[in-house]
Amino acid sequence: MKKLLAGFGGILTGLATFYLIYGWYNVFPWAIVALIIGYTGKNRRDGIINGAIFGYFLFLVYIYAGYKGRTDTSAMAKFILFDALFSLVGAFAGAIGAFIGNWLKGKIRK
């Protein structure tokens, strides 16, 4: 269930930051949500997986929302492939943020 919420959170955060906060500073809400996901994770593994899911869907939706290119089939197929592959960077970033959030949970609770 948390994986579904992480994916849905990534979609909502991607859309909200694209349409409401568009700019370089939208990384701040992204990082805060990734930290929260890691902090609330049941364990380190769960938090990192949920953070990766969050980051993947965040990048996927954010990049897709900003697409202003051609709409022919060939161009869209290339863009969708690029978007899906580049979103792996988002998964890595979300996993790192969640890892840090989980690490902070261990430091704060001691």
TrEMBL record:
<keyword id="KW-0472">Membrane</keyword>
<feature type="transmembrane region" description="Helical">
    <location>
        <begin position="79"/>
        <end position="104"/>
    </location>
</feature>
<keyword id="KW-0812">Transmembrane</keyword>
<keyword id="KW-1133">Transmembrane helix</keyword>
<protein>
    <recommendedName>
        <fullName>TIGR04086 family membrane protein</fullName>
    </recommendedName>
</protein>
<feature type="transmembrane region" description="Helical">
    <location>
        <begin position="47"/>
        <end position="67"/>
    </location>
</feature>
